[in-house]
Write a structure and sequence with these properties.
It contains six helices and no strands. The protein has 179 residues and is an all-alpha fold.
Length: 179
């Protein structure tokens, strides 16, 4: 969701702020291509778990570039930081969270060096509404995915309990038969 909707919102916000230039547009284009690169990296890697962790860090760098593109728009910073933080906490814990915050900072600094560090803190009503909706739906998506994971774990636990009971009965029957 983040890399599908948010680059479009970044483009919209930067355009409203009068902040779009060639470098910004190129960074946004990379934001649209990055999910496909990350998917291929994870799919064809010999260790998909490590590839996913590397992708999450790169997500942070790519997302951090959006801050200077939007002139450090407060809703962009809040939404993107929250989504990146949630993704890394869920997938990699606190250590991964701190790496992600560092990667967001690095992405922001690198893009800032490229396009500048202008700050403009005002936001239109439409920007506030769109970014608030983005934040809301990203949080809901993570909640849904976590719920699905918990349901799978419960099903596995139940299946293991049934198999354990079947093994206990089988062992009991074999002991009875041998006596």
């Amino acid at each position: 969701i983040t890399f599908t909707v948010n680059p479009i919102l970044v483009f919209y916000t930067a355009n409203n702020q009068g902040a779009l230039d060639t470098s910004s547009i190129l960074l946004l284009c990379f934001s649209l291509v990055w999910p496909y690169i990350a998917f291929a990296h994870a799919k064809f890697s010999s260790n998909s778990r490590n590839a996913e962790f590397a992708n999450l860090i790169t997500d942070g760098v790519v997302s951090g570039t959006w801050f200077p593109i939007t002139l450090f728009h407060p809703w962009v910073i809040i939404t993107v930081s929250t989504v990146v933080a949630m993704g890394t906490l869920v997938n990699g814990g606190l250590r991964m969270f701190f790496k992600a915050i560092a990667s967001l900072t690095c992405g922001s600094l690198l893009a800032g060096i490229l396009i500048g560090f202008e700050f403009r803190l005002e936001a239109s009503s439409s920007e506030i509404i769109l970014w608030a909706l983005s934040l809301f739906f990203c949080v809901q998506a993570y909640a849904y995915l976590n719920n699905r994971g918990i349901q799978r774990l419960r099903a596995i636990k139940s299946q293991l309990g049934e198999e354990r009971e079947a093994l206990r009965l089988l062992t009991q029957n074999m002991e009875t038969a041998s006596n």
